[in-house]
Amino acid sequence: MRDRSNMGLKLHLVLFYTFLYVPILVLMALSFNRAGLPTVWTGFSLEWYGKLFTADPILSAARNTLIVALISTVLATIFGTLLAVGVETRHNSSVLDAVLFAPMIIPDIVLAIALLSFFTLLNMTLGLHSIILSHVVFNIAFVVAVVRTRMRNFDHSILEASADLGASEFTTFRRILLPAIAPGVIAGALLSFTLSVDEFIIAFFTAGAGQSSTTLPMQIYAMIRFGVTPEINAMATIVMFVSFTLVFFAQRTDKEVFSR
Amino acid sequence: MNQGVQLRNITKRYGLVTAIDNVSLDIRDNEFFALLGPSGCGKTTLLRTLAGFETPQEGQVIVAGQNVTNIRPSRRPLNLMFQSYALFPHMSVEKNIAYGLEMEKLPKDEIATRVAEVLESAKLSGFAGRKPDQLSGGQRQRVALARALVKRPKVLLLDEPLSALDKKLREEMQLELKRLQHEVGITFLIVTHDQEEALVMADRIAVLHDGKLAQVGTPHELYEHPGSRFVADFIGVMNFLNGNAVDGGVDVDGAGMLRGVSELRGAATIAVRPERVSLMQTAPQDGRNCLPGTVEEVAYHGSDLGVHVRVRGGRSTLSARVPAGQADRECIQPGQDVYCVWDAKHSRILPNC
Predict the structure, then answer these.
(1) E runs forming strands in B229-302
(2) Which residue, B300, B299, B280, is CA-closest to B308?
(3) In this complex, is the C-beta atom of A106 within 8 Å of any C-beta atom belonging to chain B?
(4) Closest partner residue to A157 among B52, B74, B86, by Cβ?
(5) What is the pTM of this model?
(6) pLDDT tens per residue across span A13-67
């Protein structure tokens, strides 16, 4: 009886993972297909990867994506960590909590329109900098969430102990608080980098016109209008690989945070 | 110059709640002083006020002659040992202890010498490289103590330092702390809810009740001459009989006149410690207080017996502690009639509240 129900569960698991990963595996396989047709396998080739690295629009889009992801991650990590520390050590208000979570929950499209209206209202020129600012907005929310989880199960009296032993607030932050929450901070940074790399809607709305501020997801979207080409498969494979690696390391650095 | 601690008219309110209500204390140099009280009495708030983590609305904190009321915790010449120990989890034992000295910007070799000294005296030399989570509770407690003491503070504050240890280790550490205090010769101020711990360790004790100072005195004074019913009840075990104070004693409802000395008149409580009560089969005619009753329960404690006696004609019970060796086992059986006898000088007459 138990064996049979176990079998059922196993089958369920296999089907579940098949459904999740087979499309991705197909995409990865096709990126190595010589013919470039999604229907027939004609042999192994790295041709499409080679094309990818010589295509100017794609390279510049990749560079833009890296710039956006790096800068927005650094800013979001700094401000998000400070925000999390401030909220956890000084204030406790459910209103503040809700406001902090909002950018995570609000649909991207709404956030995108809101940001675009805001930038237009300020008469700001759009470009990479506006994408960076927009990504900082939602990345902060994720960094705050991860760092706060980390802070919740640590003994706040170590901060008082540090002050009692003669440390200034800054020294306490640098030598006691930061090392204690470091895994959370790193996990938050990796998470926001990943989110930024494959974010499309908000970047699309706040990028403005022109190739100079096109990010990789936007470039893929532009190319896909002419059909799914093998280059896109190759690029998607690379992007996925990068994201996957980052999430893997994020999980490794903060098992506690992710196991909640 | 006075090296001790003075608290002058400290009042601390949280909204409408008064956590500390006009408390003044004078803690002498090199004294082992205990703040004792039930949970919520304000003792920890008072300690945190001293350490600088709470700012009182009124009053002054003076340490070694210096008014530190508005000085940050990091600048006060005292150190606190936290109830949770608050060891830095990412630092080794050695680094934990050195941290406070690094904050003083002492030369590296002096830090190393002092840390090594403290490690040695705390019997932690073998654990210098370990992280706090690789230590036992008792070892963690010693690291916390060493970390505070290595700073050579004028006053060491200890917040329930032994509450996380098991009973046997706790009793060992009580004596250990007392020895240590003699050795280092600084003022120790300990917060505890355990009256036995306070009696064993402290030179003087301040009992706090609802944010107010109930009584200050040596363990002997508090035990033998409690100033209020609260103190009498909180410290040790006490029998209470309600009645009416008159000349020479208290007229207890249904039990008659019990002798004791007091200036109190009117509604009052006469109190006597269980170990002062002896049980007899016949009433002595020597002027001692004598209450007839029936043995209700006998509890065996090894060295002595705890006997509960229902007082005849009254609703109250009286407990007596009788040395097991001397107890006449025949007479101390449930259902036996006995006389509870004690000397008038062991009666304490207290206001009835």
Answers:
(1) 239-246, 249-252, 256-259, 266-272, 278-280, 289-300
(2) B299
(3) no
(4) B86
(5) 0.80
(6) 999 999 999 988 888 888 888 876 767 778 888 888 888 888 888 889 989 999 9
